[in-house]
Amino acid sequence: MIIENYPISTKAWPFEEAKKIINRINQTQKREVILETGYGPSGLPHIGTFGEVLRTTFVMRAFKKLSNIPVKIIVFSDDMDGFRKVPTNVPNQEMLTDNLEKSLSSVPDPFEKYESFAHHNNAMLRRFLDSFGFEYEFKSSTALYKSGTFNECLSKILEHYEEIMEVMLPSLREERQKTYSPFLPICKKTGKVLQVQIEQVKPETGTIVYKNLETEILEEVSVLNGNCKLQWKADWGMRWAALGVDYEMNGKDLIDSFKLSSKICRIIGALPPENLTYELFLDEDGKKISKSKGNGLSMDDWLKYASSESLAYYMYQTPKRAKRLFFDVIPNAMDEYIDSLAKFEKESDEDKVDNPVFHIHDGNPPKYKGCPKFSMLLNLVQACNAPDIDVLMEFIGKYISNNDAATLKFMREMAEFAITYYNDFVAKSRIPFPPNEMQKEALIALKIALENVDEKASSDEFQNIVFEIGKNFFSKDNKAWFLTLYQTLFGAENGPRMGSFISLYGVKNTVSLINERISHENK
Question: Residue 11 in 3-state DSSP?
Fold first, then answer.
């Protein structure tokens, strides 16, 4: 059933994606909608995997607001895939090297905590997803292959073997064409997922024949019940058909793979899912983040320095644009999240749907009011010489307009994040500039002006005072004046709205800060 009274004129991307699914089910008449996100546990799960599940969740939430048809997300782990490369960011490298080519669910856990390396990585991913309260159904490739869940579709792959080869071979290098097969037998002796040439295909018996490269003997093996694994493009298309997947996202690097898998899905009689192609997550150097390298930010890294909501905000924004995932993006993501919260209550119902916090909080964001920004807190930490949390909260408590328990709890978390982030990333890089003579005169004038204003003046009044001093010394070049303030007071090229900072830090403290910077000019 489609809900007609929801403001679906919104251009918010999760609703655009949900409408694609609705158009699909209007044609297929399905009674349940399946969204899937896939993960290969060949290395520790990275933040890109989390982002894909989060974005798919945004689409599911939007769909629920447009339709009463049951919908769920399947998080699929391709843990029966062969272990082809040892990641560099895990222990027991020699042991892992000895287990190359085996199914990931058969490779021992290098951390010695779980049944296998795949089980370890699956558990890590599920822990993060559960901590964010995601609604999902976890599926293991190994379990589904061995239980026979995929048998019907595997039989269809075998029946249409030649058609699928005609699709796949043109996409492969000449050398690879000679040995390619959609089926990868699993050696009963070694447990390795074999990439071998198939000598004979027998749809009538559900078997394939291949040459064992060690013994040179032809062996016949069933493709059912986990005796064979599909190459991943064939596996992807088969999985969509077997699980009835209606929607799946993928990164830009998998555009061609999605097209090939879609063709295979159609060959075995199923409709490929609707799709969103997103841009890739990049590390500090602009390179694609990788499970095997462990480059870029991890989820634990982000959550050490900022809230989960700020991470969700960063993931929500512009999925079709490449994103750097490094520590320097965190403060801005936190500030933009706070800005979006502040706007939400003032917006019309239609505009609220376009606000990222609507999707982050499933339509019901918290009502935090008067919260100073994260960047402001970083400057406050510096001005206070990296105080403990209670000192910082004294300033914040005087500043915020809403002292309810939820707001205070949120701000305390923000303050803790700010202290940690400042100590780890800001303290060593921020060295205040000594002012030149004109800058010193301007700072003294600002100090005198502040000494003659009421401590309880508004942030706008403080801002006007700052502007007036700037006009007197820097004519109309406001940028040069504010750059002077940021460089001399905070040792930075950018800084807070000065009126808000003075209101938060206090007039007396700001005057003391100016005095300190002036007195240390030649030290």
Answer: coil
